[in-house]
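It is worth pausing here to work through a concrete case rather than discussing structure prediction in the abstract. The textbook approach is simple: state the sequence, then state the predicted structure, then interpret. We follow exactly that order.
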Amino acid sequence: MTLTQTPQVDYRLDRAVAVVMFANPPVNGLSHALRAGILAALVRAQADRSVGAVVLAGAGGLFSGGADIREFGTPGSTAEPTLRQLIDQVETSAKPVIAGSTVFTVGFLIVTVPTVCGK
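Step two, the predicted structure:
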């Protein structure tokens, strides 16, 4: 995936693993469009019987820098799916959801990994 100025979510299968790669430069901020795309990918993976696990990965070596500050004070910042709804989807997933990062990780990962790993 190349970094673009438009939030992007790519979904692909690698054997029994759904790989959800997301990009929203410069820090993969969780904008409304990105939250909606990630949620759609999680729902798709849950519905696919061939998927045994999900990997969420941010493009460019970053997982996510958290909320997209460009949306602060706009309707997108509180539009559904909210960050809380996205976190709930990960935490209640019937399939393991793993956060993948190659370099730097903050925000969303810190909130979700202890719960997911504790399953």
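Step three, interpretation. The helical segments are 32-47, 83-91, 108-117. The chain has three helices and four strands.
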